[in-house]
Amino acid sequence: MRSDVPFLDPDSLTTPFAHLPRPRTDGETVRIALFSDVHVAVDGEATPRKAFHRTGEFLERAVEDANGRDVDRLVLAGDLTKDGHPDEFALFEERVEGADAPLLAVPGNHDVPKENDDHETPPLSRFARRYAPGLPFRHRVGPVDLIGLNSAETPDGVLSGVHHGQVSTDQLDWLDRTLGRAETPLVVVHHNPLSLPQVADRAADWPWHVYRHADPTSFLRLLDDHDVPLLITGHQHVPSLRHENGLTQVIAPALASYPLSYLLVEIGVRGTDLTLVPVGMTGDLTESYENAAAGEAHHRAMLSYTDETLRSLPF
Question: Which CATH number does the domain housing residue 146 bear?
């Protein structure tokens, strides 16, 4: 791995991530600021994986930047908080209070109650009331059908320190009915059903399999049956893009870890343009990169994959 930080000059404001022929609209352009893995912490120190000591600040910067881009919605692909503590949710709400656009979110595994919590994490029902029009949801943004799913609770509703997730059978039934009425669908969920391109052919015991959707077959088949063109996920903190059949899966960058960025998603007549928007300054990026580079092999590998992505842009 190179010792220099392989990132654009943050003063350039954006970097093209990808252009996709679909989804597209007949006229109106829909602009969405897609945040993921914010991990807002009240008291936290920097780790190789996450900049807990700056997460609230980075979220506030992202909101201010999105306000300047006249976005139609702020959408969060999960892990709003560090560990689901009520104080973390309160700080999250404080930092997004100045958003001009309405906010919609799906939960991440850090946002829901877990057996090993040492605090009382608010129930999923509260998350659905405050950050979404229920879960799952279909929300119309101009001509685009924004569809949000919950993959952060296992089917029995219990997590115990695990990272994997699953879209329940009830949600899949709902999704089948909903996609039948959706004209221009964009699906958002926290856990990715397709693995990272860099580890797609690894053995099953490769550590990254624990971050995936636990049983992706039915979910992917349903998306294929309805010709869904774009699925955006979070969770892995490694910005990436993978095509399979007619589906493009995009893993969004994390606000809490290198490259401290969000995705600007613009859907119009030419298709969909994805743009990487950094919220960290040069010093922030350097600190985040160096912390990851000094971590364990797991952290260094994920940093290497992120490095590979940034060097390959645009897809």
Answer: 3.60.21.10
What confidence tens digit (pLDDT) does each residue in 22-50 have? 999 999 999 999 999 999 999 888 888 89
Give residue 181's pLDDT: 93
Confidence of residue 156 (pLDDT cuts 50, 70, 90): low
**Domain contains 4:** no
Sign of the CA dihedral running 122, 126, 130, 132: positive
Bridge partners of residue 34, in order along the sequence? 75, 263
Is residue 127 one of the residues assigned to a domain?
yes
Dump the DSSP string for the chain: --SS-----GGG--EEEEEES-S--SS--EEEEEE----B-SS--B-SS-BGGGHHHHHHHHHHHHHTTT-SEEEE-S--BSS--HHHHHHHHHHHTT-SS-EEE---TTSS--TT-SS-PPPHHHHHHHHSSSSSEEEEETTEEEEE---SS-TTS--SS---B---HHHHHHHHHHHTT-SSEEEE-SS-SSPPGGGTTS-TTSGGGGGSBSSHHHHHHHHHHTT--EEEE-SS---EEEEETTEEEEEPPPSSSTT-EEEEEEEETTEEEEEEEE-S-HHHHHHHHHHHHTS-HHHHHHHHHHHHHHHH---
Whether residue 40 is contained in a domain is answered as: yes
pLDDT at position 1? 36
List Cα–Cα distances, 227 to 115, 189, 246, in angstroms. Answer: 38, 17, 7
Residues whose CB is less than 8 angstroms from the CB of residue 201 and which lie 6 or more positions away in sequence, other chains included: none
- Domain assignment of residue 157, yes or no: yes
Tokens of 148: 């949000």
* Domain extent at residue 251: 10-312
Per the structure, how many domains does the chain have?
1
For residue 241, count other CB atoms closer than 10 A to its CB.
18
